[in-house]
């Protein structure tokens, strides 16, 4: 007689035989995708008025696809918000309109009225340009529409100070990031409780690297701004940066003559502030190849980050995304 | 060697990017945690891994070289620690240093490293980092060996259920790559690891600074045949068993774009799901059948643990966010009272009786925490009495929820057994918990009274309770061996008790004679007493002739699985009779003793004893030692 022993009563029952698994182990991209989708759903389920910050770059392109996957067959249940500076590349505005149309999502474009009135521009106003249009603009948009959670495309691999950023970043009612208020994130559990006026930034692609982003765009055939691909475009060289002359607002210095060069952009932003790289990479594999063999890090092309390492941290405390 | 490997990858990127992308696309992901202080070379190790996997760009390298000259500790050589440190600067800026995540990849795998550099907040940070880790790298300075902090890190790794562990014995260059030193540290660590339930680990001798045994086997350690660290990281199994467990998915969101579609979205915590599978929704208990697995790129024929999916069901059953969909044949339990381990994160202590919000899976309920049964000193693993839990303290408590939830024990399923506690007023995440088991209703009424249980008692003694049952003929040497064995166990700090004819027959069983029914009752009582003593957490040595198989089996079935160890002390009758220490055989032969085993009453020898001792081959001392070795050789597993 084999009477069951005490502990056996607690052991799980045997699992009935079933058809063998056909799915191979999940790849790193599948795990990252599943995690991002889980974050999108969690924030949507627990916050009242979420929004997705759409900055038109490659990270936003991936975010949009992930959002669509998270809620299919429904449309992502939040609008897209573009905090505009009026100084983006023309190709970016075209892409923005196209993606809004194709996704069927509402697109909110916010331009800081004060920055418009004062004619803030990257030529005359230096860092004020970013402060007014982006930092202040984002706060205005969030307050105006009453958003309580904003999805952003920040990644932990971008910069040293982002390595410890939470997936859900808590902001006070004044939009300040206080290190003491950040919450530990265990397993897949996010604490979305907050008081009136308090908000979250949510970073669903925190754990993606630049290579993951490119690989995913390649695999999923995600549309991106054509400026990522090499093309012959008019540029001037300033302080070691190649700046594209995208429209007639570009102020040329005395003696500066735009030259036609085969260039492309590793990041997208305000055209007078975004440096190009000379390149002939015209396909995604070629772009990825160039990136992998590149010897300088991604953010170098962004003029804004060229000051000291702590600058990102400072901007974050002030509410820059 | 490392150079060649990197060249090959670069060549592939340069010459055949599509082949590279194809290979990269198939990579798996390993998340791991590094534990150790700055002094152990942790930052150097992470910096080295990033560097060796080519994650450092030229501009970063230039900055690193400049910083190394200015701030480095390596006399102008590259100081890899500076790649990830920056702690001083962060402290000056008043920024909390908690968990930082780093990324690198090789041609086989992508890695996410959770780096927890904090000191004051160490427990909170490490628990946070460990909660998502598939593997842990525990660093040891070869000069210093196993330190208090090594024990603390290992305890937390074990607590959070990380099953793949590397003991990285670093700075081997500073002990001249001494194999003896390496072996000494490994032996010391093994003894400790077994105590806290780390069943297996891989020890690697290395020098992170010099890059030895990082990507390629080092020529400095010819005596080490195991993998270098990077290879171990590339080969460690990932989420290997989650698919084999029953299906579980917490519903995150009900997808209802129109009246014709109703889907349930979530991330599959364990198991596999296919259209046609029966599922049960919990806590309601209603059942249905999966109709479709819906994704943007088309319906799936099956989905596995780790995937985010949307399921539609054949029946209109009521399911909402917070519910769990589970395999109908193997649903998780539903309960509202639990025992759990809590880790406290907040400056304000955990107060028994105060209601907190508990979030588990996608469900948030109100929870009252009982007074801690005990708290654990993470440095010494001692269990201490406690009335509350302070910041970074770990304790075991009962919880009472205001609504029942579906759950699995944390050890079975991290997603259905791990929870956070949220303060209702400050909204801070104040603690994390690991569910052990549900408390049954009858126990709940007086749940303050059942503060201490068998596992607690055993854990307090740092041992696994056992009933070591020595059976054999009269005069076989059972009591002599049992005495020696008890001395040996006691010398090792074990808590024991020896039951034999002398101390039982004169008291508890003095009403019993030697008739067969008396012998049965004698063994029954001894078995019941043994069970109580095992429940008290003791290692019980039972030295009784116990001639009948049926009674020994009855005793075995009283005990928990694996607790009963039957030892046959085998001495041939002729030899026992020749020894006849007490003169009993002579009396029996003379007819003065009735029902004497071996003479006029049978002895049924065990058919499959756990331990077999032939006393014609082994001395009593050797026999005791053999039993001791076997007992200790089985992994003691306190408190689990």
Characterization of this structure:
The complex is a heterodimer of chains A (321) and B (640). Chain A is of the alpha/beta class and 321 residues long. Chain A has eight helices and ten strands. Chain A has helices at 28-46, 58-71, 90-103, 113-118, 127-145, 210-220, 284-293, 311-318, and strands spanning 50-53, 80-84, 107-111, 149-151, 168-171, 199-202, 231-238, 241-244, 259-264, 275-278. In chain A, the strands form two sheets. In chain A, strands 3-2-1-4-6-5 form a six-stranded mixed beta sheet, sandwiched between helices. In chain A, strands 7-8-10-9 form a four-stranded antiparallel β-barrel. The termini of chain A are far apart. With 640 residues, chain B is α+β, with helices and mostly antiparallel strands. In chain B, helix 1 (2-15) packs across helix 2 (17-25) and helix 14 packs across helix 20. The longest helix of chain B has 20 residues, at 516-535. Chain B starts with a helix and ends in a 7-residue tail after the last helix. Residues 1-7, 442-450 and 635-640 of chain B have low confidence and may be disordered. The chains are: A alpha/beta (321), B alpha+beta (640). At the A-B interface, helix 1, helix 2, helix 6 and helix 7 of A face helix 1, helix 2, helix 4, strand 2 and strand 3 of B.
Give the tags.
heterodimer, A: 321 residues, four-stranded antiparallel beta barrel, 10 strands, B: six-stranded mixed beta sheet, six-stranded antiparallel beta barrel, 28 strands, 31% helix, globular, disordered N terminus
Write the layout of secondary structure elements.
The complex is a heterodimer of chains A (about 325) and B (about 650).
Chain A: H1 28-46, E1 50-53, H2 58-71, E2 80-84, H3 90-103, E3 107-111, H4 113-118, H5 127-145, E4 149-151, E5 168-171, E6 199-202, H6 210-220, E7 231-238, E8 241-244, E9 259-264, E10 275-278, H7 284-293, H8 311-318
Parallel strand pairs in A: 1-2, 1-4, 2-3, 4-6
Antiparallel strand pairs in A: 5-6, 7-8, 7-9, 8-10, 9-10
Helix pairs in contact in A: 1-2, 2-6, 6-7
Chain B: H1 2-15, H2 17-25, E1 28-35, H3 42-52, H4 58-71, H5 81-84, H6 87-92, E2 100-105, E3 109-115, H7 122-131, E4 135-141, H8 148-159, E5 164-170, H9 179-195, E6 202-205, H10 229-235, E7 248-250, E8 253-255, E9 263-270, E10 272-273, E11 278-282, E12 287-294, E13 303-304, E14 308-313, E15 324-327, E16 333-344, E17 355-360, E18 363-369, E19 374-376, E20 383-384, E21 394-407, H11 414-417, E22 418-422, E23 429-438, H12 441-444, H13 454-461, E24 466-471, H14 478-491, E25 496-500, H15 501-505, H16 516-535, E26 539-543, H17 549-558, E27 564-570, H18 573-579, H19 584-589, E28 611-614, H20 620-633
Parallel strand pairs in B: 1-3, 1-4, 4-5, 5-6, 24-26, 24-27, 25-26, 27-28
Antiparallel strand pairs in B: 2-3, 7-9, 7-15, 8-9, 9-14, 10-13, 11-12, 11-15, 12-14, 16-21, 16-23, 17-18, 17-22, 18-21, 19-20, 19-21, 22-23
